[in-house]
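CORE FACILITY INTAKE
Project code: CF-77B
Contact: R.S. (postdoc)
Sample description: multi-component assembly, two entities in total
Requested service: structural model of the whole complex
Turnaround: standard
Below are the sequence entries exactly as provided by the requester. Do not edit them.
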Amino acid sequence: MSNILVVHAHPEPKSFCTALATAAVEEFEARGDTVVVSDLYAQKFNPVASSDDFRSRANPDYLVYSLEQRNAQEHTSLGGDIKTEVDRVLAADTIVFVFPMFWFSTPAILKGWIDRVFLSGTFYGGKRIYGRASMRGKKAVAAVTLGGREHMFGVDALHGELARGMMRHFFQGTLGYVGFDVIEPFFGYHVPYCSNDDRAGILENWRDHLRSLDRKPVMNMPDLSRFDDVFRPLEA
Amino acid sequence: MSNILVVHAHPEPKSFCTALATAAVEEFEARGDTVVVSDLYAQKFNPVASSDDFRSRANPDYLVYSLEQRNAQEHTSLGGDIKTEVDRVLAADTIVFVFPMFWFSTPAILKGWIDRVFLSGTFYGGKRIYGRASMRGKKAVAAVTLGGREHMFGVDALHGELARGMMRHFFQGTLGYVGFDVIEPFFGYHVPYCSNDDRAGILENWRDHLRSLDRKPVMNMPDLSRFDDVFRPLEA
């Protein structure tokens, strides 16, 4: 039995994307896991990182957000909505992200959840990144819906690669950076335009993806042993 | 004389990033251009795309955000804050983005400005993307501050490439996608940790960058003539 956090961010509660989030809850509960859902639109989550996030400040005159994140943890002065989400992440063995791709990235409400919740200090440090970061041992998996078709992505395709190209900032630069084992993501292509039968097929494939999560490949992240103590590449 | 829009997004009004935005305003005004500033934190810009963005709806029962964007333009039912920003972009010959890199991307407040302002229909259409999209003939340039060092970015470096790798979703997938000529971006590395002298040097380099904007290289975008009418690669 595991603790699962589903982070969901779609503005339409009846969306297909929401159905993917609901399916994830069902699949994990069916196998006896404990599931918590952060439904960012339903929670009206505030995505704007600002000085309001700290009840007291290390430097009240000049905001360096990441330094205030560190100070706030030492002095328990972090805003309540952030604390709730941080605790959910720390309690989870696996985080499931379900969202529509907006501009080859997350919707802003989810981007701001990352900006405010993935605290400097707790999640990563200057040299504690990738395989040395704090989310080591936890898994992250994502279901992403998009309008584009699968043939638009790949090394020689229109937009280039998706998970390792356009969305590298998320899978490597965010989830991998803080140490998660990043499971090969699930993409629901062409969702607004495909048939209901096609969507039913995507939903079933997503359930299969989740049922075989333990056997799914994990994305490669940079191997820190290839870099020196300030992350310059070592001589070959 | 040109019309310039500076889009700025930093939570600290006294930040070095804000100094870069101010320098941009000064440089363009000094050469006689008209400059408008969208200071997203000062405006308390709402970054959350939602049904509230439309005063009337094509489909009140089910939100497909991009379809409602199109409907709202036909029926002038777009929320006032969005309309203001859209008009600013349409009036500009050059847009200057100034922001700190958060998670190899923009801060959420700027991500949401893109989500809400880069309207389907007005900025791009299903097949009107990249060189066929509507911002053709306008320039986009960015100054991005970050904590990382320059040696951490590149083909064989720790994080891989920056503008074409980690931030490809922004430079290609957003600015290039809607048709801007995307000027090679300016990065201010290691900003929170470097000396005041170093920062003064970065500021001067940014002013030089802006003064020579017309001679700066433009980033390559996908060549649509290499793809068929559904964007499959043509045979070589």
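Facility notes:
- Strands of chain B lie at 3-8, 34-39, 94-100, 139-145, 181-182, 186-188.
- Chain B has seven helices and six strands.
Invoice: internal transfer
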